[in-house]
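Obj.: predict assembly geometry.
Materials: sequence records (below).
Method: joint structure prediction, all chains together.
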Amino acid sequence: MSNEATLQKDSPLWGGGRQPLGVSYGKQMMWFFLLSDALSFSGFLTAMGLYRFKYEDTWPVAENVFTHFPFMHGDAPLLFVALMTFILILSSVTMVLAVNAGHHMNRKGVILWLGLTIIGGFFFLGSQAWEWYHFINGDKGAVQVEDNTIYYLSDMEGNIVTLHELVDGTPGEHGEHYHFTTEQVRAAFERNEGVTLRNPGKTATTFSRKEAEAMMTNAEVVQGANLTENEYGHVLFADFFFFVTGFHGTHVFSGVVLNIIIFINVIMGTYDKRGHYEMIEKVGLYWHFVDLVWVFVFTFFYLV
Amino acid sequence: MSDHPKLPSEHHESPEGTWWIWKVFIILLVVTTVEVVLGIIKPEILMVQLLGTSILNIIFIVLTLLKAFYIVAEFMHLKYERSNFIWTITLPMLVLIPYLTFIVLTEGGYMNVFE
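Observations (raw structure tokens):
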């Protein structure tokens, strides 16, 4: 400590001590980092908006994509992602409570609330893994024609018919994943006169049986989604989904790691020795930012 | 040691106790619930087109910005910082993000023209 002080006295550089903006160096830099991160995320979301605008006909509608809820049969659009939002908001609240306890130098309080925040973080990561699993495995199945356009099978009114309903005539058990060959689907399509094709997008244009028959002659089956194929619609939707929620999930993961590091420090009494709990505040800023980004991802991926 | 560089930040008081935290939590919860309910039922009356999108989407975006305000102002405590710091953080975002959105929305209109 005395060394540090001597160094500063002899150094021509500004030694700190006064805070022009009323925040410490560390907190200020955390804010600047978050500012740049916010600009990155806004870039991703704006880019997604652009392509969504361009490919409106084949851009998936979220309620046809995210329909599952654990231990529940049937369609439950939005519910699971609402639960994820709730978990993240709750873990943000416990983080503020931890910061608050830190202001009062209440070590036990910080341990309790920070511990709950970490648990919330793990719940969120688990939920995201579950959602990715279902997104990757696919749900209804679709066909892809030569120019890589995706079409859902549907009845004449445009209600989606899943591949399972088409080939086996039954809705299929929840949670089971079947794989159908192109031949199976084409044969079943020939048999079922009442089935046609429709656009996956908002416009949901339904084609006549005659048009659909012509399109089916060179159609391939697509089940599930990855970076090059996407049964729900335009492949860029899948790319943006993996990239943006993946980038956000990486942030959540690093947030959990940071939380665990400061949690260990709190238990060891590091911040009591230091005389203040500002580190909780800095990591807390990062954690709230992760929640903030999710609020926007929630809106632009699932609601709008 | 008055010029020690590792001082904690000046303490700008947020309200005493924890009631304000729960207040913000309730606000975020209610707003999210409204969004989810609107997202599930999608009332026909809100599907009217306005500013190139539906009224419903505009409601979603306004509610999102409201939630963002509460998270940044209260949870991230920005409201209680010095005003020069508040502007240091918010001004770049308030300028750059609408600017980016504006550029992409206007220039994006040409994407389908040259196909």
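Conclusions so far: The mean pLDDT of chain B is 83.
To do: check interface contacts against the pulldown list.
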